[in-house]
């Protein structure tokens, strides 16, 4: 007799979906802090954590703070308070974390405080208060890591810290001296980003042109050749990727001149972000700014002879202790001659722990500092408007950031995301819909304003 065979279908109970721990994340401050946030999120995501879209959906919240100026400190403390009120479980990291008592005085109930660049401590704190549930075959992350920027551009941090001791700045006390990443590591990360479809890399650090000094410019292999950890060599290597390379936070050391040649050759974008901060030699000396004795106006003129399309952006401080009317007028005269394309201006704000607090100089009243900033930005807007008007009628390549009904928003080589202007592309709605976000597109400039351009698709 044959054994009976049960031919009924086998019903297997489907395992319950795993509930991943969810982390909320608030990232404040500069792009360097944003990169820190991306590193932390990449590590957490690889371990099976999910990023929550709201406080209510998060099991705990990490707040990456800024502590550069008092307004940033206030914003960070408010953000911590909001996260505590909305969620209750908060870990604090970032620059303000270097001053834990200031946080504890206001928010004693935070779970943990770590300083900047303390990635392992942040992750360990998350583990402590929200243990991971890791499944390596499910919790996969892309090779380029978790990014907080759109897919088509990304920041690339090449170093931490700074060797300068500017009197208004406390970054070195928070992030330490310059610590450059090995050039092979930097270039491999950049290559991964390019392979993932990133069209623009924004190079950032505290002092980009000092890159590699601490490494004694040690060389490493990349793409079959030895590459030295030097600012020029790094820029030249990045230029081989065939995507937009934008350089930020560049001090105007003499060796920067060679990089302008890469811009003229089209290997990196003709764009320099240089924090000049002031033009008065007396104020620059009080600020303890590097390269204060450089003839910056002559350098700028020389750069424009080499790369006529170069866009120069900078930031300035008005109302610094001891700044006189004469110092400020010298700054305005300098700006009139320099004709910078993009500028930002801040009223001086005392920062706890900064050497400037000990200067025996007369403080500038807040109302005078505000008036000076207004005059400075009015002149800057006039210069920007004239320089942009000269671009009307030109055809240029732009990078598309957004496409909506009837308009696409893009940026030219002269425009860094979020801090500079935009190029609004108008025209046939059907043609605009065919433009992909993250694509490079040819346009003809049709109009200009103080900071932005308008264009139509080139024929």
Layout of secondary structure:
Blueprint: E1 22-27, H1 31-46, E2 50-51, E3 60-65, H2 70-86, E4 90-94, H3 100-106, E5 112-113, H4 119-129, E6 153-157, E7 159-160, H5 171-175, E8 179-180, H6 183-195, E9 200-204, E10 219-222, E11 225-228, H7 231-238, E12 244-247, H8 256-264, E13 271-273, H9 281-287, H10 296-306, E14 311-318, H11 325-338, E15 342-347, H12 366-389, E16 395-404, E17 407-411, E18 423-426, H13 429-433, E19 440-448, E20 453-457
Parallel strand pairs: 1-2, 1-3, 3-4, 4-5, 6-9, 9-12, 13-14, 14-15, 18-20
Antiparallel strand pairs: 7-8, 10-11, 16-17, 16-19, 17-18, 19-20
Helix pairs in contact: 1-4, 7-8, 11-12
Tags for this entry?
alpha/beta, 13 helices, 459 residues, disordered N terminus
Describe the structure.
The structure is a single chain. With 459 residues, this protein is α/β, with parallel strands linked by helices. It is built from 13 helices and 20 strands. It has helices at residues 31-46, 70-86, 100-106, 119-129, 171-175, 183-195, 231-238, 256-264, 281-287, 296-306, 325-338, 366-389, 429-433, and strands at 22-27, 50-51, 60-65, 90-94, 112-113, 153-157, 159-160, 179-180, 200-204, 219-222, 225-228, 244-247, 271-273, 311-318, 342-347, 395-404, 407-411, 423-426, 440-448, 453-457. It has a 5-stranded parallel β-sheet, with helices on both faces. Strands 16-17-18-20-19 form a 5-stranded mixed beta barrel. A 3-stranded parallel β-sheet has the order 6-9-12. Helix 7 (231-238) packs parallel to helix 8 (256-264). The longest helix has 24 residues, at 366-389. Residues 1-17 have low confidence and may be disordered.
């Amino acid at each position: 007799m044959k054994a009976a065979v049960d031919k009924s279908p086998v019903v297997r109970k489907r395992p319950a979906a795993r509930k991943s721990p969810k982390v909320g994340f608030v990232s404040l401050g500069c792009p360097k802090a944003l990169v820190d946030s991306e590193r932390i999120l990449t590590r957490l995501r690889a371990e099976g954590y999910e990023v929550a879209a709201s406080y209510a959906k998060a099991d705990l919240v990490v707040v990456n703070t800024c502590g550069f100026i008092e307004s940033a400190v206030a914003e960070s403390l408010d953000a911590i308070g909001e996260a505590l009120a909305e969620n209750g479980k908060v870990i604090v990291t970032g620059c303000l974390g270097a001053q834990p008592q200031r946080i504890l005085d206001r928010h004693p109930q935070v779970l943990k405080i770590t300083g900047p660049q303390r990635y392992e401590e942040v992750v360990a704190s998350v583990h402590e208060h929200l243990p991971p549930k890791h499944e390596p075959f499910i919790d996969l992350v892309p090779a380029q890591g978790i990014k907080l920027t759109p897919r088509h551009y990304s920041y690339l941090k090449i170093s931490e810290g700074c060797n300068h001791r500017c009197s208004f700045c406390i970054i070195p006390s928070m992030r330490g001296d310059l610590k450059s990443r090995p050039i092979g590591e930097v270039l491999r990360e950049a290559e991964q980003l390019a392979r993932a479809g990133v069209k623009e890399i924004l190079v950032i650090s505290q002092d980009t042109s000092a890159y590699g000094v601490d490494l004694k410019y040690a060389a490493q292999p990349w793409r079959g050749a030895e590459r030295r950890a030097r600012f020029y060599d790094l820029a030249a290597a990045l230029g081989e990727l065939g995507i937009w390379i934008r350089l930020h936070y560049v001090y105007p050391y003499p060796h920067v001149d060679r990089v302008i040649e890469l811009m003229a050759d089209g290997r990196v974008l003709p764009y320099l972000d240089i924090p000049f901060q002031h033009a008065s030699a007396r104020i620059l000396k009080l600020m303890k700014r590097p390269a204060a004795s450089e003839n910056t106006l002559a350098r700028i003129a020389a750069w424009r002879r080499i790369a006529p399309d170069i866009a120069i952006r900078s930031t300035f401080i008005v109302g610094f202790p001891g700044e006189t009317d004469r110092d400020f007028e010298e700054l305005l005269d300098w700006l009139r001659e320099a004709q910078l394309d993009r500028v930002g201006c801040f009223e001086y704000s005392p920062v706890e722990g900064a050497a400037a607090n000990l200067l025996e100089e007369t403080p500038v009243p807040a109302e005078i500092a505000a008036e000076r900033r207004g005059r400075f930005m009015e002149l800057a807007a006039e210069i920007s408007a004239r320089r942009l008007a000269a671009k009307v009628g030109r055809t240029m390549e732009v990078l598309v950031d957004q496409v909506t009904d009837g308009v696409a928003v893009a940026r030219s080589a002269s425009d860094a995301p979020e801090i500079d202007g935009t190029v609004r592309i108008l025209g046939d709605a059907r043609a605009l819909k065919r433009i992909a976000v993250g694509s490079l597109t040819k346009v003809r400039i049709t109009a200009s304003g103080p900071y932005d351009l308008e264009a139509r698709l080139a024929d």
